[in-house]
Amino acid sequence: MGEFIVYETDERMFFLKKQLEGLRPLVNTHIFAPNLVLSAERLDNVREGETLVCGKLDEGAETLAQCKKLRVCRMLADEKFQAANARLTAEGALGIIIGHSMLSLEHMRVLVIGFGRTGAAVCRILDRLGVATDVATGASPRPAGAFAHRVTTASSADLSLYDVIVNTVPDKVISDDRALAMRHDAVYIDLASKPGLNLAMLKNLGLDAEIYPAVPAKCSPESAAAAMKEYILEVTA
Length: 237
Known about the structure:
Blueprint: E1 4-6, H1 11-19, E2 29-31, E3 37-38, E4 51-54, E5 56-57, H2 59-67, E6 71-74, H3 79-100, E7 109-113, H4 117-128, E8 132-136, H5 141-145, E9 150-152, E10 164-167, H6 176-179, E11 187-190, H7 199-204, E12 208-211, H8 215-219, H9 221-235
Parallel strand pairs: 1-2, 2-4, 3-5, 4-6, 7-8, 7-10, 8-9, 10-11, 11-12
């Protein structure tokens, strides 16, 4: 029998290690946080034929994994895990909204940019709470229309209308000129792996603008660990 080897890079991984105590996989299984892009150096302690559970590998790590004949289990390619992670991210985003805005949920107007898994999860939770929410998406407006008061695009949305803007698209979707239309008291929350606009510019102007990577690890680490554990036990059974 092998062991679960958890690399504790955040609080979520600390909880995961505790949750896996007493359980044994067939072969040594190395587990990294799903938000990390692993380099070849990260795989130094992984021996030939062992199992690797992770989010993504860079090109060097991909080559090394093949050379070592590792079994690579990619959490971010699993639909069930992605859905759970999106729900936890949406809950965390709600906490950030409440913590940063001076308005109640009843009185604020929110724009969610992107309607993938995370964007849809954010819209669902805001809709359940009766928050006035618009969606900016380049996809078909019909799915987003079930949760949004209005469906628009990132390039045409009037940013001056919103108290809170939540981006879920990992690309620059708002130009510097358009970002200047945001109100000085607006809150900009970026949940994507790359910011959707020029964060430094907004911060220099005094706006509350920030990118929030790995929200589940920070806002609900124990539940985030439980979602990881469920995936890990399925792929290592």
